[in-house]
Amino acid sequence: MARTNYSFEKRQKELAKKKKKEEKLQRKREKQEAQIDKTEDQAPALPEEE
């Protein structure tokens, strides 16, 4: 009978956890960038003096 490969299961679980964490960080970065862009759009532009 075949034995369970626990190290493989553990590695797969770790990879899934790492991938989920990276996706979460990416979403946070996108949210921050969107917020920065939004605040820049709302800031009134100073008239250029010539």
Overview in brief:
The chain has 1 helix and no strands.
Structure commentary:
It is a single chain. Helix content is about 75%, strand content about 0%. The chain is mainly alpha-helical and about 50 residues long. The model has no long low-confidence stretch (mean pLDDT about 85).
The main β sheet shows up as: none
What's the SSE pattern? H
Low-confidence stretches: none
- Give the overall silhouette: rod-shaped
Kindly report the average pLDDT value: 86
- Approximately how much helix is present in the residues? over 70%
Topology readout:
Elements: H1 6-42
Supply the key terms.
50 residues, mainly alpha, 1 helix
